[in-house]
Every structure is written in C-alpha cells, then in structure tokens.
Design goal:
Elements: E1 2-11, E2 16-25, E3 28-31, E4 39-49, E5 51-56, E6 58-59, E7 62-63, H1 70-81, E8 85-93, H2 97-113, E9 120-124, H3 146-152, E10 159-164, H4 171-179, E11 182-186, H5 193-201, E12 206-207, H6 223-230, E13 235-238, H7 247-256, E14 262-264, E15 280-282, E16 285-290, E17 293-296, H8 308-317, H9 323-330, H10 332-338, E18 355-358, E19 364-369, E20 372-373
Parallel strand pairs: 1-4, 5-8, 8-9, 9-10, 10-11, 11-12, 12-13, 13-14
Antiparallel strand pairs: 1-2, 2-3, 4-18, 6-7, 15-16, 16-17, 18-19, 19-20
C-alpha cells in the first residue's frame, strides 16, 4: 500500500523542507513527491527521522533483567515509541549466564517475529570494574568465559553491543568479539588511559554513558573520559537529563569530539512511559523515582526516566544546540555507530519509513515505524 505524508516541515537529516511530500510503499520511502491516486495525510508539525536508542533497560513498567520475554521487549518498545524511538537495543545489565541466555533467546524471537523497533541487543556487563559498577550487582561481575562468549557470538541477535571494562578483558578477546560482529563499548571502567587506547586499537568503537561510571579526566591521568574525548573514531553515548552530566561538561565533550561521534542515549528504566512515581526493585534493591531522577536507596543514580524526545529537547534547551544537530544525535549518529545508516537515521529514497512528528515544543505527536503509525 502506498501513502503520501505531507508535513508542514520535514527535516530529512540534512536539510529542512516546507510542505514536503513523502510517499511510502512497503515500509520504505518511495518518493519525495505526490503520486496520483495515493491517499495523502497532512501532518501539522515537523517530521524528523525516527530516534535510535542503543541503551534501553526498560519502559512501560517492564525491565529486561526481570522478564526475559518477547512480551517484555514489546512492552518496552511500545513505551518508548510514544517518545519517538523507532529503533532500540533492549539492554541487559550485569546478570548471571542463564538470564543472559534467556534474554538472547527473547531478542532472537523478537527479531524473528518482527517486533516493532527491535534492532538487536546490548549486554551492559557483566565484565565490568567493581569500583565503577554503579548499581550493577557485584555478585554477578566476573571475568569473561566461553559461556559468555558463546552468547555474544550468536548470529541470530541482530546488531550486538557489549559494554565491558578493558582492564578486565584482554585485547585478544576484544579482537575476537569484533571479529564476531560485536560492537564493543567501554564503560563501567576504572582503566588508565593506556589500557583504553589499547582496547580502541583492538577494535572497540564506543563508550557507554560518557563521564558516568568511568575513570575521570585529569591533567596527569586522562583516564577513560580523556581517551574517549580524544578519540577521533569512537562514538560516545551521552545521557542529557540534567543529572548524569553537567551541561558544561556535556558541551565541552560535544565541542571536542568530531561532529557525528556523540549520540544521545536514555539508559531508560521501567518508569519511562508511566505517569506515577512508584519505585521498582533492581536486584533486591529499591530504586526510588523523584520526578525525572532515579536513585537506589544506597544513593547511586540508577538509570533514567529519560526518553529520546526528552533527550533531544534537553540538548536544545540545556546545551544550546540546534534542533537539527540534536535530532542527528538521536537518529543519524546512533545509526552510523550501529552500521545501520544505509536504511535508518535519515529520510531518503529507499530508507525505512521511520519518522517522528514533533510539535513546536519538541514533544512527540506521532511516531511511525516502517510507514505504520505506532503512536
């Protein structure tokens, strides 16, 4: 079925256009023109490429670590679709090997089913640094073994991301993961600069939530943060919620990195998409929501209530970036990091018809995945 969308304004990932028609067929963009006899849909607002979130732990009351099922993943996806996310990586934080296997099975089944928005999986841990563990359970942090490698190297998981601490995983293992099409991110790490550089040379290409849970930048010891900002090639995920990173630090990092290497992430937890401020349990510890902030009862920040539209909005309003660059940080740049930019991240001929209608205040009015309205 063909359908033509005509928005007041369209941002295609490069330029803004006014009253610009987009004709969709079979989930992809067929033409930037009207087609005779095709139903037209008028949209009030700005149409932008769909957002891609590489770090989504939960949403809609669901948490992957607590429920390793297709239904859980679809609940999370539906919750985030309300906020413009058209592609995401369900993220499993540090857990035991049986939970990892079940989560992998659920992701594979979701991909096979065609669950909306699911791109693959992100394993955040369990091979992390105890001093930088955050709320990850120390009881499950461990050295990598053949059991975890078997999960990471599966070929039915779509796009795979693994976050690890390079001081606890050898460069040989990093090379093996990269050879198995795993995107290796460095995070929850207390490594020194030299260790991080060695991991980058071995093929690591990303950093998980820059500044948070990593050795800081210093004048004599650049740490993980210094190596991340210095790297011309690696992508950095950034949580722009006003709690995880000071706006000045975020701006410094954005200005220092090459354009295109800083991407927005949510690190979202179950309360995203819920109106109440109820707490939830994470590995037996209560996590308390206070407005847009989540803290474990022990004091650590415990993920976010952030959504991608909120991240874009904050990037414009808190950091002072332009709307077009904030949108690219939420769409094109994560697509490039994941190697999916031929089909996603921009609106161009032949690309997936994943797009979001924003109002003037940068809130989501409608979300489309493969040309079908999901919110």
């Amino acid at each position: 079925m063909k359908q033509t969308f005509i928005a007041q304004q369209v941002f295609d990932g490069k330029d803004f256009h006014h009253n610009h028609p987009i004709t969709v067929e079979d989930g992809h963009i067929l033409a930037f023109d009207t087609v005779a006899g095709v139903n037209e849909v008028k949209l009030d607002g700005t149409l932008v490429p769909g957002f891609i979130d590489v770090q989504v732990n939960g949403g809609g009351g669901a948490l992957l670590n607590s429920d390793t099922s297709v239904e859980c993943i679809e609940t999370i996806g539906a919750a985030h679709a309300k906020f413009g996310t058209t592609g995401f990586l369900p993220t499993l934080i540090t857990d035991d090997i049986d939970v990892m296997r079940r989560a992998a099975d659920a992701v594979a089944a979701s991909l096979d089913k065609g669950s909306a928005g699911v791109l693959g999986v992100h394993f955040e841990g369990p091979h992390l640094s105890v001093p930088k563990k955050g709320v990850h359970p120390q009881s499950h942090i461990r050295r990598i073994s053949d059991a975890e490698l078997e999960v990471f190297c599966r070929n039915d998981l779509g796009t795979k991301v693994v976050t690890l601490a390079p001081e606890n995983v050898s460069v040989e293992v990093i090379k093996a993961l990269v050879a198995a099409d795993v995107k290796v991110c460095l995070g929850h790490s207390n490594a020194d600069y030299e260790t991080v550089v060695a991991a980058l040379e071995a093929g690591a290409t990303g950093f998980t939530h820059l500044f948070n849970a990593m050795s800081p930048f210093g004048s004599r010891e650049p740490g993980v943060v210094g190596a991340a900002i210095e790297s011309r090639d690696a992508w950095c995920g950034l949580i722009v919620d006003g709690h995880h990173v000071h706006s000045a630090a975020a701006r410094v990092a954005i200005y220092a990195k090459p354009k295109g290497k800083m991407m927005l992430v949510t690190d979202a937890m179950p309360p995203v998409g819920l109106d109440d401020e109820a707490s939830f349990e994470l590995f037996g510890t209560q996590v308390i929501r206070q407005g847009d902030r989540l803290n474990a009862v022990t004091g650590e920040l415990a993920g976010c209530v952030l959504d991608m539209a909120g991240a874009v909005r904050n990037t414009v309003n808190m950091l002072g970036l332009s709307l077009d660059e904030a949108v690219r940080m939420a769409s094109l740049y994560p697509a490039q990091f994941l190697g999916l930019d031929k089909q996603q991240g921009e609106l161009r001929l032949g690309s997936k018809a994943d797009f979001v209608l924003l109002n003037n205040d940068i809130f989501v009015d409608q979300t489309y995945i493969a040309g079908s309205r999901v919110f």
